[in-house]
Fold:
Amino acid sequence: MPIERTLAIIKPDAVAAGNAGHIIALLEREGFEIVAMKKVTLTEAQARAFYAVHRARPFYDSLVRFMTSGPVIPVVLEREDAISALRKVMGATNPANAEPGTVRKLYATDIEKNAIHGSDAPGTAAVEKPFFFSSLELG
Ligand code: CDP
Ligand code: MG
Structure:
């Protein structure tokens, strides 16, 4: 399995609830190394751009409101097979369907306020890492 880098975002619900540290600790226990991390509040235009793939979906406007409702913590993570490993440890989009021990089972509120984002494929990771981090920050 190749060493990969992926993008996670600790979402506003988890940051506001004081769960960011718990989620980062869980990810480190799962073998992810923190390459870069910051705390930012997205503008509406930035949230719309980040989630542009979902612009035709009925949940898009609400998702943009949620993602701009408070600070988020984007993190670039590195480990073997990082992209699919992160998706696995995140758990299902709807926490009601998430496996025990996953971030979303432990920390999500509902299908929208679900604590964490993770890139879903190498192509999206390649676009999402530089959305938040410069080449200087990523080494
Ligand atoms: O985040 P993930 O890749 O698991 O799910 P997605 O299908 O790419 O959707 C992106 C985000 O939109 C989710 O993480 C939820 O925050 C939100 N969403 C929602 O509010 N209602 C849905 N029915 C589906 C997704
Ligand atoms: Mg997705």
Summary: The pocket of magnesium ion (ligand 2) is lined by residues 120 (CB under 6 Å). Helices lie at 12-16, 20-29, 44-50, 60-67, 82-90, 103-107, 122-132, 135-138.
